[in-house]
Amino acid sequence: MTVAGREVVGYRCDHCAHAWTRPVEDGLDVHDVVRVDLPDATLYGDVRQVEGDRVQVRGAGGDWLLWVERWRVIGY
């Protein structure tokens, strides 16, 4: 989805039907600290690689390493 020429992610609350959007991160760099919103969990880590529409994120202390779609990543 695009709003004002910028790619965004749309959300909708199942309980109240409130809807909102947020921009897809386009300025991610290696070592940025990020949050990853997954369907069943929210993870925090740092960016290891960025390739097109996906990002590799490493958990604190190297506990996990995961490729995720860029739209799931929120930078801090």
What report would you give on this structure?
This protein has 76 residues and is mostly beta strands. Helix content is 0%, strand content 57%. It is built from no helices and 8 strands. It has strands spanning 2-3, 6-12, 19-23, 33-37, 42-51, 54-59, 65-69, 73-75. It starts with a strand and ends with a strand.
Q: Level of helix content?
A: under 10%
Order of helices and strands: EEEEEEEE
Provide the spatial order of strands within the biggest beta sheet: 7-6-5-4-8
Could you say which structural class the secondary elements and strand pairing correspond to? Answer: mainly beta
Total of DSSP H or I helical runs spanning 4+ residues: 0
Q: Uncertain spans, ≥5 residues at pLDDT below 50?
A: none
Distance between the termini: 22 Å
Give the SSE map.
Blueprint: E1 2-3, E2 6-12, E3 19-23, E4 33-37, E5 42-51, E6 54-59, E7 65-69, E8 73-75
Antiparallel strand pairs: 1-2, 2-3, 4-5, 4-8, 5-6, 6-7
Tags for this model:
mainly beta; 8 strands; globular
Q: Brief overview, please?
A:
The chain is mostly beta strands. Helix content is 0%, strand content 57%.
